[in-house]
């Protein structure tokens, strides 16, 4: 029997704001423990929350980028459970009225792992539907020592989005592509830095298997402790066959929470889920509902940047880039912005794209701190396009540019690379070439047009390579006709 | 012969202070002596910091509106660097690291914070017998209760151990003890005074308000503490009028509604008689009295004990022994620490209400209780809106009976809950109410009359209450101690 996997993801994304969700403490990663705290985020007696509108606006923006419907009212609820990392022993979250409903994520080919990008499922542009996105406060972080535990409340109260997908995913690779795309959109929109290693983006996986053709879902397990997108892929590459093996041997899957152990490459059981926890949600009485349709949504719209898909299309249309070039440049916002800067006012978009993709990226630069001013590539393309240097010399300039970070025009001048464009000089060289190469001249005149190359080579040698081959070609043809 | 300073009102002391007849130290010294002689009997204070009060008095700025006036604070309102026990063992040893907004405002207005007053544990009770520290006596009859939960704040004002005090009112906790002790108690409109720093009992009902010897003082204190607060999301941006200016507007033409449901069975005949007399006085002054109906009054107590306990069960979840307050000596996992710390730290009434509140929010019961209660709360609110279409104020008893004997209702929570039957609906409807003395029972126990006003119409309360007060001498009576 054939089995298929049914996967749904719950992704938590920390919203990038200056301050926390319900107080004025800094929302900042990496500060010394328990220094970004106040009565509100410590849950001290009498302290009360006030909502951070920027977090609401950014969550709406995330929803708009993902095609969600935006609730006209933003309302919060309390979710109750006791845990040492939760200062109030209830979490302020959204229950029945999430900020964003529905929407979806399109899985583009390039979002898939490199090794499967040519597969049919990677090119199918499958849409993963979203259930909802809601906004809540993050909890503190626990540390466990030998005999004690400690809690760092710096993280407590950080604005946190929860993005819940439908169970539309059916493979480890799709999960990879889904997370890659989500992450890209979050970074693109400035919603979050979405660094999984810093816990800014966290993912819980719900996975079950069923015989192909069966409608009902199988019993699912939940996988936690996933610290990277590739980790999610590896965990599913382990868990899907594990479940299929159990089921195909007539066994049954227990509803349980498992932990991904990257070192051993296994999912390990954490706890068996008994009955569902009763969170006793009720509307947060300390916060008034906020209208989103009177300004907040409009503000969110202003935050929405051109997304990768749109960027790619524009690069192809406006600058004549190939599908491949446009895709590479559009994938990371930093790179796309860099290209846009480089190409500003230039008609050599394709050449600039080539320098950046084939030459610059090959040097492995840090995309967030690109060392070469983007305008250098424009300058270089102008030099080549204006016949100041030829493409072989361009390579030499690029090498020097990556080395010294200096402007192409400076490099050209210093190295004396400027092409000989003095036509009178070139005409003399051409005359010399014709005089000295009788055979080639005869061959050319008898129809072996390739023979002109020998004459061109002669002239290039005379100019020490600093001539434009096209110009020499033109002069020679005129003289030989 | 002039009165001893502790007998005086804020207004009169302020006149003497600014005229240079007395100093703030004189007042504090006099109060400290009074406390030393009287509080061993009344037991209204949990703590008095004489040194600190004298130090504050030495720095008095008489230009400020409350400059030099000592005020007592209920022990559930945070005052920086002071203990804030809420009458509970679970907060024993807790030091507040910040000021509540009202404490900050009082300090800014020049007031001297004299001491912290006793209360029912977490403001849950109507007799102050549920304090885990001490039982406060009614100054008029020491074997009777002072009312509650702000029994300490009422008793210290009624026994001239403070010039005025702050309390909190969730279902009558200011007005009922004011009535039972014979002083003025105001429950402002929900959203009029910031709750930031008030240890929450029921967030959608709690409101801070003043106890005073005169209506004028009540107006002065509200002036100092009212207004929107950026730290408190449910405080409203309604301008704060000049409350003192309202005092002298005539009573003539005021339309006063008499809700018939508040004069049904269960009202003590002496209370009823005193109320009838006061109605006659208002009619004589040219006010227009009319019978009105608040048809859902019968449901108020039930609705209150669902909503208040639900919110309390969440608000009190933070007291878990992890970050502050009482922690059990028993070592164990977090769950053991929670269970033991809470079992040891909370008293029986608090436990009863946490269990009730947890129950009404539980899955399967939420709709039948919490949700239903919210719907009926809307009906109660509408009752008041309708009534206020035809009248400016409502006049009712504050408490159906004068103070009862200590211990009388301790074994019957339901009887205790009914002590708030006249005050609870005001909190549910979020309107404002004031209790002023209107007579004495044959046992020489004070009787209170309650005036209820529409949202943010405290000025109307002051206007009617002030005229009534000044035309009678009830407010000048003092207990023999």
Description of the structure:
The complex is a heterodimer of chains A (481) and B (481). Chain A folds into 3 domains: 3-299, no CATH class; 306-415, no CATH class; 423-480, Arc Repressor Mutant, subunit A. The N and C termini of chain A lie far apart (77 Å). Chain A has 481 residues and is an alpha+beta fold. Helices cover 38% and strands 19% of the residues of chain A. Chain A has helices at 53-65, 120-123, 172-188, 229-248, 296-303, 308-319, 323-331, 333-343, 349-360, 375-385, 391-404, 408-415, 423-436, 438-445, 452-462, 469-480; strands at residues 3-14, 69-70, 73-74, 77-80, 90-93, 100-101, 104-106, 127-137, 141-144, 149-152, 159-165, 201-211, 221-226, 256-261, 266-272, 282-283, 290-291. The longest helix of chain A is centred in the middle third of the chain and has 20 residues, at 229-248. In chain A, the strands form 4 sheets. In chain A, strands 1, 2, 6, 7, 8, 11, 12, 13, 14 and 15 form a 10-stranded mixed sheet that branches. In chain A, strand 13 (221-226), helix 4 (229-248) and strand 14 form a beta-alpha-beta unit. Chain B has a domain at 5-250 and 468-476: Amidase signature (AS) enzymes (Alpha-Beta Complex), CATH 3.90.1300. Chain B has helices at 10-18, 24-42, 50-58, 101-108, 151-158, 175-181, 215-225, 243-246, 269-284, 300-315, 334-345, 348-361, 367-387, 413-417, 424-428, 458-471; strands at residues 45-48, 70-74, 112-117, 164-169, 184-187, 207-212, 255-259, 288-292, 393-397, 432-440, 446-453. Chain B has an 11-stranded mixed sheet with strand order 1-3-2-4-6-5-10-11-9-7-8, sandwiched between helices. In chain B, strand 10 (432-440) and strand 11 form a beta hairpin. In chain B, helix 2 (24-42) runs antiparallel to helix 3, helix 10 crosses helix 12 and helix 10 crosses helix 13 (367-387). The model of chain B has no long low-confidence stretch (mean pLDDT 96). The interface between A and B is large, with 29 and 45 residues.
């Amino acid at each position: 029997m054939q089995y298929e996997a049914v996967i749904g993801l719950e992704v938590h994304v920390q919203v990038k704001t200056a301050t926390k969700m319900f107080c004025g403490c800094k929302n900042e990663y990496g500060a010394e423990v328990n220094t970004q705290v106040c009565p509100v985020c410590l849950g001290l007696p009498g302290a009360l929350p006030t909502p951070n509108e920027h977090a609401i606006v950014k969550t709406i923006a995330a929803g708009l980028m993902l095609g969600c419907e935006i609730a006209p009212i933003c309302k919060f609820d309390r979710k109750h459970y006791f845990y040492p990392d939760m200062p109030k022993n209830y979490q302020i979250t959204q229950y029945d009225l999430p900020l964003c409903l529905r929407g979806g994520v399109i899985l583009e080919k390039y979002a898939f792992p490199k090794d499967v990008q040519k597969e049919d499922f990677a090119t199918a542009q499958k849409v993963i539907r979203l259930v909802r996105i809601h906004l809540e406060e993050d909890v503190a972080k626990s540390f466990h020592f030998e005999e004690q535990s400690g809690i760092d409340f710096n993280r407590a109260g950080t604005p946190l989005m929860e993005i819940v997908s439908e169970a539309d995913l059916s493979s480890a690779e799709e999960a990879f592509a889904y997370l890659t795309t989500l992450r890209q959109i979050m970074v693109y929109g400035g919603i979050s830095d979405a660094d999984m290693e810093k816990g800014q983006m966290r993912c819980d996986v719900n996975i079950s298997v069923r015989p192909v053709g069966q409608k009902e879902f199988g019993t699912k397990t939940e996988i936690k402790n996933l610290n990277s997108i590739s980790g999610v892929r590896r965990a599913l590459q382990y868990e899907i066959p594990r479940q299929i093996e159990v089921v195909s041997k007539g066994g049954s899957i227990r509803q349980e929470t498992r932990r991904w152990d990257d070192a051993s490459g296994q999912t390990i059981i954490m706890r068996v889920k008994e009955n569902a926890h009763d969170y006793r949600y009720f509307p947060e009485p300390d916060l008034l509902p906020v209208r989103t349709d009177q300004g907040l949504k409009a503000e969110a719209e202003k935050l929405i940047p051109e997304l990768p898909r749109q960027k790619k299309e524009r690069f192809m249309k406006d600058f004549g880039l190939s599908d491949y070039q446009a895709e590479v440049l559009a994938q990371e916002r930093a790179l796309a912005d860099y290209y846009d800067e480089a190409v500003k006012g230039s008609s050599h978009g394709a050449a600039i794209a080539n320098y950046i993709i084939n030459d610059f990226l090959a040097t492995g630069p840090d995309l967030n701190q690109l060392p070469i001013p983007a305008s250098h590539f424009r300058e270089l393309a102008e030099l080549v396009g204006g016949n100041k240097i030829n493409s072989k010399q361009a390579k030499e300039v690029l090498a020097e540019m990556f080395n010294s970070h200096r402007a192409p025009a400076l490099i050209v001048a210093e190295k004396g690379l400027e092409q000989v464009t003095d036509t009178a000089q070139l005409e003399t060289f051409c005359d010399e070439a014709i005089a000295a190469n009788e055979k080639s001249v005869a061959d050319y005149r008898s129809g072996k047009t390739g023979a002109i190359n020998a004459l061109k080579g002669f002239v290039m040698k005379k100019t020490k390579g600093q001539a434009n081959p096209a110009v020499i070609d033109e002069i020679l043809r005129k003289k030989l006709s | 012969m002039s009165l001893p300073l502790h007998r005086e009102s804020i207004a009169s002391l302020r006149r003497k202070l600014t005229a240079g007849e007395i100093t703030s130290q004189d007042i504090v010294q006099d109060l400290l002596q009074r406390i030393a002689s009287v509080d061993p009997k009344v037991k209204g204070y949990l703590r008095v910091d004489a040194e600190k009060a004298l130090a504050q008095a030495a720095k008095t700025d008489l230009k400020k509106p409350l400059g030099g006036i000592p005020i007592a604070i209920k022990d559930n309102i945070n005052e920086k660097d002071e203990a804030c026990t809420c009458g509970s063992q679970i907060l024993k040893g807790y030091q507040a690291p910040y000021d509540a907004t009202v404490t900050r405002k009082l300090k800014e207005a020049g007031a001297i914070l004299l001491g912290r007053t006793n209360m029912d544990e977490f403001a849950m009770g109507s007799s102050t017998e549920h304090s885990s520290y001490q039982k406060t006596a009614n100054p008029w009859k020491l074997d009777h209760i002072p009312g509650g939960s702000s029994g300490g704040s009422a008793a210290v004002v009624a026994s001239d151990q403070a010039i005025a005090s702050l309390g909190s009112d969730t279902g009558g906790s200011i007005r009922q003890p004011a009535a039972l002790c014979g002083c003025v108690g105001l429950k402002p409109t929900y959203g009029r005074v910031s709750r930031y720093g008030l240890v929450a009992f029921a967030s959608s009902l709690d409101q801070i308000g003043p106890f005073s010897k005169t209506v004028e003082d009540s107006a002065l204190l509200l002036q100092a503490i009212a207004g929107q607060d950026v730290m408190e999301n449910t405080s409203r941006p309604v301008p704060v009028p000049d409350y003192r200016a309202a005092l002298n507007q005539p009573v003539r033409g005021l339309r006063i509604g008499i809700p018939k449901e508040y004069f049904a069975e269960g009202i003590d005949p002496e209370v009823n008689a005193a109320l009838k007399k006061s109605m006659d006085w208002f009619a004589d002054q040219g006010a227009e009295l009319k019978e009105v109906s608040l048809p859902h009054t019968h449901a108020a107590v039930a609705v209150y004990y669902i909503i208040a306990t639900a919110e309390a069960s969440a608000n009190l979840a933070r007291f878990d022994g992890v970050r502050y307050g009482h922690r059990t000596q028993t070592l164990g996992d977090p769950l053991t620490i929670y269970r033991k710390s809470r079992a040891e730290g909370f008293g029986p009434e608090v436990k009863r209400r946490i269990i009730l509140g947890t129950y009404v929010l539980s899955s399967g019961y939420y709709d039948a209780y919490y949700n239903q209660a919210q719907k009926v709360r809307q009906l109660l609110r509408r009752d008041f809106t309708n009534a206020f279409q035809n009248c400016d104020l409502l006049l009712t008893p504050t408490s159906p009976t004068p103070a009862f004997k200590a211990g009388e209702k301790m074994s019957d929570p339901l009887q205790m809950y009914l002590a708030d039957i006249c005050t609870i609906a005001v909190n549910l409807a979020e309107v404002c109410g004031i209790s002023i003395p209107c007579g004495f029972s044959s046992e020489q126990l004070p009787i209170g009359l309650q005036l209820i006003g529409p949202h943010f119409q405290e000025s109307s309360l002051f206007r009617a209450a002030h005229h009534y007060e000044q035309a009678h001498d009830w407010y000048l009576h003092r207990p023999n101690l």
